[in-house]
């Protein structure tokens, strides 16, 4: 809350992040969206980033390396670990068929 009793304005970093998400949605062809979409995407992005940074930090500390904090290489390894191996071709087909069998919303 601000001193006048209203809600405080969001930090400019959050405003910039929301603007970036809106730009991404536009580039993906969305013409209009509920503000909740931006909230959810921002939350997911922050959660995923926090998770990856946590893994990268543990990897770095377990490696015994010194120097500056987390590096891009640490983060790349964390991303690769989170993604895991791709499914086999038969499994990918099964998952695709299962997804395609779901009825579309009305």
TrEMBL record:
InterPro entries referenced in this protein's UniProt entry, alphabetically: Histone-fold
GO molecular function terms noted in the UniProt entry: protein heterodimerization activity
Superkingdom to which the source organism belongs: Eukaryota
Region called Disordered, residue ranges: 82-106
Name of the protein in its database record: Transcription initiation factor TFIID subunit 12 domain-containing protein
């Amino acid at each position: 809350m601000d001193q006048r009793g209203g809600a405080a304005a969001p930090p400019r970093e959050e405003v910039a992040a929301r603007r970036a998400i809106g730009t991404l949605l536009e580039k993906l062809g969305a013409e209009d969206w509920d503000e909740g979409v931006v909230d959810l995407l921002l939350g997911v992005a922050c959660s995923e980033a926090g998770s990856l940074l946590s893994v990268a930090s543990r990897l770095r500390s377990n490696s015994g390396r010194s120097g500056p904090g987390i590096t891009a290489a640490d983060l790349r390894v964390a991303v690769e670990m989170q993604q895991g191996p791709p499914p086999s071709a038969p499994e990918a087909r099964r998952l695709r068929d299962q997804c395609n069998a779901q009825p579309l919303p009305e």
